[in-house]
Write a structure and sequence with these properties.
Number of strands: 2
GO molecular function, one term: DNA-binding transcription factor activity
Largest sheet: 2 strands, antiparallel
Number of helices: 6
Protein name: RNA polymerase sigma-70 region 4 domain-containing protein
Pfam families: Sigma70_r4 (PF04545)
Structural class: mainly alpha
Organism: Lobosporangium transversale
Strand content: 5-15%
Length: about 140
Amino acid sequence: MPRTYNKIDAVQRQKIIESVYNEHLTFAETARRYGFPQSTIRSIARKFEKDGLFDNKPRGGNRLPVLNDKHISWIKEQLDAHPDKPIRELHQELNRYFQNNPPVSISCVSRAVRKQAKYTLKLRTCVLGPKRHGKRHIH
């Protein structure tokens, strides 16, 4: 069975911290008062001691894009000139051309091609001819 987690807002966290530090209640007493496991109370108290925060630290997300309009324009130019260019080559040339530090990842380039430049790259498939001498040959 998957583990479930309690959603505890900042107001509840603040009350828990006040109970532990101002009223000097034990973790067990505070846990009974608010109806949360003792381990949850202990972890809230530890976070408060470590970071001085009532609420969780903000998580990732809303990051600035790594590639901007000039990068996307360059990618479009490259793909218009060489539509069969593999992503790996495009990735290496982009990092060389713009001297990105740190270098842009290949997955970032792939996402930019699909989502920002709105290109779909198809893999070239080889067409196999009829069997000759028990083996198929590429046309």
